[in-house]
Amino acid sequence: MEPQTIARILAFGRVAIGVALVAAPGRTAAGWIGEASERPGARVAIAAVGARDVALGAGTAWAAGGKDGTKPWLLASAGADLVDLLATLRHRDALTSTAVIGVGALAGGSAVAGLWLATQLD
pLDDT tens digit string along 15-51? Predict the structure, then answer.
């Protein structure tokens, strides 16, 4: 599979997760942060993370579709994923092991994929 195609698939997945976080922040993030996701303040932060992911995913998909300028979007996305991973690991004692493993796999895997793709594109 071509790197551009892989980048677009990752980007559309990011958009889907972002839309879910914006549309239903409490429900979508419950598997990550548990009951805290139902608090109004947490919902604001969750929706903001979702909007970030929609913007990063849309920008990456757009750039990958044009075959130019994809690298900065991939690096920004990988940076966001690393922040999600580090925040999850930092507060792992307050999270379920399923959440830590799941977010670790999703955010860590996405960061690695984005960094690899950044070496393949542009």
Answer: 999 999 999 999 999 999 999 999 999 999 999 999 9
Alpha-helical segments (H) within 1-122? 3-23, 25-33, 40-66, 70-90, 97-120
96 — phi, psi (to 5°)?
A: -75, 155
CB 82, CB 107: distance < 8 Å = yes
Report the predicted TM-score, pTM, of the whole model to 2 decimal places. Answer: 0.92
Contact (CB, 8 A) for 29 and 46 = yes
Q: 47 by DSSP, 3-state: which? A: helix
Whole-number Å distance between alpha carbons of 105 and 96: 14
Helix (H, G, I), strand (E, B) or coil at 69: coil
